[in-house]
User: Fold this.
Amino acid sequence: MPLTNQDLIELTAWRRKLHRHPEISNEEEATAREVVAFLADTRPDTVLTGLGGHGVAMVYDSGRPGPTLLFRSELDALPIEELSGVEHSSLAPGKSHMCGHDGHTAILAALGRQFGRQRPAKGRVVLMFQPAEETGDGAAGVVADPRFSQIAPDFSFSLHNLPGISFGEVRLKPGVVNCASRGMRIVLEGKTAHSSMPETGASPMLAVSQLMPTLAKLGGGAFTEDDFGMVTVTHASMGEAVFGVAPGRAEVWATLRTRLDERMAGLCAAAEALVGHVASEHGLAFAVDYHEIFVASMNAPTAVEHLRTALDEERVAHSEDGLPIRASEDFGIFGRSAPSAMFFLGAGERHPALHNPDYDFPDDLIPIGAGIFMRTARNLLG
Assistant:
């Protein structure tokens, strides 16, 4: 049964409720409860909670043999102060849904409503409301959860809204669609000194000033090529905010980015070698650790063809233009256990960019995204 006008009114209101009450990665407990409550009357056959943190999986089972299809959305918001000015703006200081995960979640809820009224003819549909996408922890945690074996999919599908693309158009291609990335934290340790006698200490000042531009030069290769690499320095700090002490400790943070996972190992090795050389040159100890690790997202050709068929049947314009994109996405983890594909749904050419403080998910994308997913599911499961 298709979505009704009343469904869309209620889904839009619910999306805006989620928007008012954002929770950042690994804190999505209330959001997860809200998902379970909102879809309770659809009577899912199985509900798994606490997956990989606060993840929720809802299963709509035909009771007949057939494939298992997983459709995934994200629960988490960002640590960004909202400046959109919309009536349903975030009520949580310093936190907001500036990536549209509230809208993706509403799209999955739209599927839940429809499968609650009519189960698939065969197989199962799993609606996976995933936590902690923004930190790269969520998908890995879900897949590592022993209960994931109960819902192991034959295909996994996802979407992400994308400003800068005409509203309602789709970008989709096989192969790499999102880059691998990881955050590199570099700690430099020297010796503090009185600011009147800096020569008695070992300051990391020159090392920091040398590292920042040289790290950024480590990348290379055209973005269209498999050897693409990119390093972006994102943060640096040194010493204490006082005038009387010459610093003895500093941190430099950088994001390393590659098209392929294999290339990432080489980029990390080059960055670590550079840090070691610079630290030694200035008589400093150093340590390196990594955070927010994302693997490359690869769209399987078979999964892409299922989506393309649905797009054509739904009369949604689509192309491969602009793919892959540099941004990372932890959905790639699901592709390691089953064919998977993500498509990008245009939020409008002039819509505020993702992660900007004035962004808000366009509610009119809810029926478009849900329609593509539903057509995919009905084509495969009936």
